[in-house]
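User: My advisor asked me to double-check a structure prediction for DNA polymerase III subunit tau before group meeting. I don't want to rely on an old file, so could you generate it fresh from this sequence?
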Amino acid sequence: MILAGHDAAWGEWRAAMAGPRMHHGWILSGRRGTGKASFALDAARELVSEAGVAQPPHDHPDIIVLQNLPASADDEKKREAGKPYNLKRNISVDQVRAMQRRLSTRPTLGSRRVIIVDPADDLEKGAANALLKSLEEPPGGTFFLLIAHRIGRLLPTIRSRCRLLTFPPVGDEEMDNILRKLEPQADDAMRHAAIAAAGGSPGAALEFVDLDLGKLHRLMIEIAENGDPDFSRRGRLAEAMGARPDRKRQLAAVELARAVVAARMSRTDRQSIPALTETHAELARLAAQAPTYNFDAGLLVMEIGSLLTNLAIPRETAHG
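Assistant: Sure, here is a fresh prediction for DNA polymerase III subunit tau from the sequence you gave:
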């Protein structure tokens, strides 16, 4: 559990718990990998606990978590066997309705119940509309914690009914401490690359190390700086990506490319800003589409490489 940078969120949450009327809906907003899910579970346990009532150490009957289910029956079997498995792209309306049926009963151990949606970004349209009805008329003692990696993807009507808890990016020094503790095999170069690519997300930095994205990162920087006139660097980028990368690796590659562009934005001349802005916008489009589109992995990495080459093409100045 990575809980760095949560002091302000805990202060606001506990002040609300101590107040006369706890708000029933909360959005936990911040980059993926900043520990929002861990916070949500711990906060939910605090909320449902009551003096003199023994609390289960693991799954709690009064904490309902809605999240992406295994993609298929085979993936369900893989999950049960502790093997890697794929997830469905969305949280379905059937999942929300099943949760709502449980809300017609009383909580099991006390007077409160918490619904965690992780992530609320992945609610399909019907599911979001169904959840909205519960937020508009919540049963007594029911609270909602909606985890949002991209809050702009939530319905404005959902956002308007929830109180916002923001989870800011974690500083480089704290990120380095986390990596040293949890990934002691990572050398200085790997840690520095992971921190640069993660954009303040400890989870993303750990994933960078786990997925061995160092070679991808170096090649992306090389393409952005020197271009790729003979496509050789893009070929090496595809090799580093792997023949059959899973969706997690594909998403990580897109985010890595965005981090390369963002790093250049902070140290570029005015003439290069339009190319950087255009490239970042295209990568943001890919990042938004990648969780739900069936991209060909080879074409995806070639498109990433081609977008990065635009940064290395000299731009002639206009003459009046």
